[in-house]
Amino acid sequence: MRIFGLILIIVGIAFGVLFTFALLGGGEDLLYGFFVAGVLIFMGWQLRVYGKGIRQQEPTSDMSEARPDQMPPLEFPTTELPVTPAVSAAFMRQVARWRRTTAIVLACGVGFFVVLAVGMHVAVGSPTGTKTFLIVLAVTVPFFVLLVGGIHLFQRERPVRSDLRASTYLRTSGPVQVVSVSGGRMLRMADRA
Q1: Burial class of 116 by CB neighbour count within 10 A (0 to 12, 13 to 18, 19+)
Q2: Residue among 46, 47, 48, 70 nearest 60 (CA)
Q3: CA-to-CA distance for 132 and 117, rounded, in angstroms?
Q4: What is the reported pTM?
């Protein structure tokens, strides 16, 4: 995450420099370009800050300086374990729940647009009403299905598929935080994010 954050910062700065040159060269209406460059820099900065573990390793000191109220730092609080059939089954149960929820949302949305189009067809009694009815259905229903299906695919299906293909999963001890970053959330553990 920290490397991706650094890449976003560099790309944002490069865009900012390019838009500055374009502005100096006589370009107009570059406000959105500077806004995008700023958003990239901000997102990269957040990933750089939050892309490391909660507790960073501190330099080891003499045992004579150790106090009883301080716990010794854990060397590796996060370990990789092999994926078991029980873990795979838990993933598949969650995927099945998400698919049912997405199917219900799609069915309700398509039903809404069909009822809306039928209402428009009934309200407009002229011969052009049939064209309006078909145009509304032809435009809204596929757009809605693609939008909801795409959100489901990219936000839920793809991450879980990559988790199912992995041969290991992580188990950690210590503090855990879910940090909101632009476009999603990040899990921060004691030694990694």
Answers
A1: middle
A2: 70
A3: 8
A4: 0.51
